[in-house]
Amino acid sequence: MVRAVRMTQTLLSPAQADELAALFRKGATLVQLGERFSAHRRTAAAHLVRRPRPADWFSDECDLVEAVELHTDGSSLIEADRHPHQRAPCPNFTSSGVIVTRWAGHRRLVAVFTPAEREQLRKELIEAAYTDADVVGAALVGSAAAGREDAWSDIDLVLQVRRDTDPADVASRWTSQFYDLRGAAHHLDVIAGGVLYRVFLLASSLQIDVSFWPEDQFRATESGFTLLFGTPQPSTEPREPEASHEIGMAWLYALHSRSAIARGRVWQATMMLDHLRDQLLVLACIRHGLNPHHGRDADRLPVPFLTVLQQARATSLAEPELARSHTALVRALTGEVALHDPGLAADLAAPLAALAHVSVRRHRGCLAR
Predict the structure, then answer these.
(1) Per residue, what are the HEC states of the chain?
(2) Domains and CATH numbers, the chain
(3) Cα of 235 vs its chain's centroid, Å
(4) Phi and psi torsions of 286, nearest 5°
């Protein structure tokens, strides 16, 4: 029998929810409310967040700072309007892990996951993998496996699915548990190498990546791989991007940014310039032996190079400013290509020189599309 991922849930009646809100208003903590109603403190918090609150709970916007405390040691506490003499300036995000927002005119208290809660959830997911009859292996990957985990890291779990079981069926069952028991708000599927990577976003803003590998494909594909159980295949290394391809993508984005600026399509131009800058970061990471994926090592690049990119950023959507940014980025691309491949740089010298110049419209009119 497959045991579901554990999660204590307590559904409160309307009368109980009213009592919970009244006790909260009088200063009861989440811990006290959880004990009073035999509920997890997040369940108590969820009832408070969902229900409308009287306008006099907070006298002004700065009162919201004192409205919520969430301790990272797992003993969460919410206090509303209790200590007016201790109120501080009112940021939207506190270091203790609580976001205070205003949406559609209504104030809301949103608890962000804590490292302790993430660790507990990871333990429960690992236990669920051990007890799932269709899962014959599991591993942790990502920052936790590489020893780089911090307060903002997500959970990355790799599952080895039994040979005679369809990974899609296991994924469907686990997905139901995430929505029914974990408060998942949405998920995204990524297919790579025939493997399904399902990325969940929880209500607490925690990201959880679970990949479902056929038994004969289960293996390490990166340096951070902590085997929990099962028998993996020989490991492989991720394919590094080729500089020639990344250079091609860069001049392609430059072509589109030039035409977008000339046509007065400022938002399209902004997107293309952002992509062009991203390609320059990838190329520089490749050249310096850094991780080029998703900007993970971009902050480790030399300051002079990053300064060039910083100065090349457009400061507004004005077409002359976009044109300035375009020219600066194409010139940076010309220099980067020369550092990767002098021969290719010679071949691209003429087209990149022409590409660096862009015409800015002086008046609005009908343009060819």
Answers:
(1) CCCCCCCCCCCCCHHHHHHHHHHHHCCCCHHHHHHHHCCCHHHHHHHHHHCCCCHHHCCCHHHHHHHCECCCCCCCECCCCCCHHHCCCCCCEECCCEEEEEECCEEEEEECCCHHHHHHHHHHHHHHHHHCCCEEEEEEECHHHHCCCCCCCCEEEEEEECCCCCHHHHHHHHHHHHHHHCCEEEEEEEEECCEEEEEEEECCCCEEEEEEEEHHHCECCCCCEEEEECCCECCCCCCCCCHHHHHHHHHHHHHHHHHHHHCCCHHHHHHHHHHHHHHHHHHHHHHCCCCCHHHCCHHHCCHHHHHHHHHHCCCCCCHHHHHHHHHHHHHHHHHHHHHHCHHHHHHHHHHHHHHCCCCCCCCCCCCCC
(2) 14-112 (no CATH), 116-229 (3.30.460.10), 243-355 (1.20.120.330)
(3) 27
(4) -60, -45
pLDDT in tens, 29-59: 777 777 788 876 667 777 766 655 444 444 4
| Residue 224 CB coordination number (10 Å) | 16
pTM, two decimal places: 0.68
Q: What pLDDT is stored for residue 79 in this prediction? A: 36
Query: At residue 91, what is the residue type?
Result: P
